[in-house]
Design goal:
Blueprint (H helix, E strand, L loop, with lengths): L17 E3 L3 E2 L2 H10 L5 H4 L1 H6 L7 E2 L1 H17 L3 E6 L2 E3 L3 E2 L3 E13 L6 E12 L4 E5 L2 E5 L9
Antiparallel strand pairs: 1-7, 2-7, 3-6, 4-10, 5-9, 7-8, 8-9, 8-10
Length: about 160
Amino acid sequence: MQTVGLGLYFEDLPVGKTFKTVARTIQDADICAFINVVHMTEVLFTDMEFVKNESDIKGRVAPGSLSYCYAEGLLAQATMQKTGYAFLNMELNIENPAFAGDTIHVECEVIEARLSKSRPGRGLVRTRNKVVKHNGQVVLTYTPLRMIKCRSELKAGE
């Protein structure tokens, strides 16, 4: 019987492949817990009078880092269980804010896939990930490079 929810292998991620995750709604309690855990005491996240009277951003805004962390959580549960070995690097751009009550999902496109030269049975996969709100607005984009398990002991150059 197939176990669902396990990760994708290198062979499942050719350049051009696209997929998206399930969605998650950002709750006010999520924002409070996140800013307390990471001690992000910026008034934009902790002082609603400041937000109401002085900030250019109105409403209960979520830190961009929270949106990124949720995106990684959504991807991990869907694509990397037992196959994702390392997160190597990325570029990240915050495009728009996310607020309490926004529902987000991640849209991924594989933009690079190659076998590791130094680690047999491993591939390197870079995706372009867009975190998208329920209204279609992009919250952030990032391009992680990950080391992914191969189904077989493939070696670069074979």
